[in-house]
User: Fold ABC transporter from Dulcicalothrix desertica PCC 7102.
Amino acid sequence: MTRTEPVISIKHLNHYYGKGALKRQILFDINFDVYPGEIVIMTGPSGSGKTTLLSLIGGLRSVQEGSLQLLSHELYRANQKKLVNIRRNIGFIFQAHNLLGFLTARQNVQMAVELNDNISQHEAIRMSEAMLKAVGLGPRINYYPDNLSGGQKQRIAIARALVNNPALVLADEPTAALDRQSGRDVVELMQRLAREKGTSIMLVTHDNRILDIADRIINMEDGVLESDSQNVLVKSYD
Ligand SMILES: Nc1ncnc2c1ncn2[C@@H]1O[C@H](COP(=O)(O)OP(=O)(O)OP(=O)(O)O)[C@@H](O)[C@H]1O
Assistant:
């Protein structure tokens, strides 16, 4: 793996919810880096702060204390305009896949492409169809989400997250609503596409069955990152 600049670099990050007497610290002195092409899985009990950390990394919440750099851009004290620009480099995949029911699979993906002003509609359609084929949904391009299985819907969400070739994909419980085989298929697909494109993936999960796709597993306990170990289940790759 090439050790170039980290995609994510976090130093002494703290986070709090509430104000005054109700102020409560949720994240405590978080430090870690994620490099291009790495797949990092974050585990930990419910309420330990995983989603909070993921939303900070995604520029969906303001950094209050410490440093969080995404692709060498500092998010601490970044204004909304800068956060919006940084978010363009990130693909988001969540448990509730947030597909629009009145759009077909292709239109749901195409919408993400058309956020780029400089891509024509014709090109957006071509890219969306190619991405849906890559996730195995070629025959379902014109289906509406309601007529697809949970695993197929999640694959549309993956296509939508990856279609703009983001440097980073953030996934929060992407397999939670899926049966064992669909969950496995979905993460293996993410892994394959990440390998092909050098995308970094940071994935939060309670699903022990998918830990082997990670290069590194980090564990959050009460707002503290407990371990940051190489995944011994996985052989290293070039
Ligand atoms: N907007 C908020 N305002 C106040 N407290 C919050 C807010 N969001 C989360 N919390 C609290 O912060 C703590 C961490 O929540 P967070 O959602 O980050 O945990 P998590 O590890 O992702 O949990 P889960 O695995 O259940 O999704 C919890 O105690 C939660 O109740």
In short: The pocket of adenosine-5'-triphosphate is lined by residues 17, 26, 44, 46-52 (CB under 6 Å). Strands lie at 8-17, 24-34, 39-43, 65-70, 73-74, 90-94, 168-172, 200-204, 216-221, 224-230.
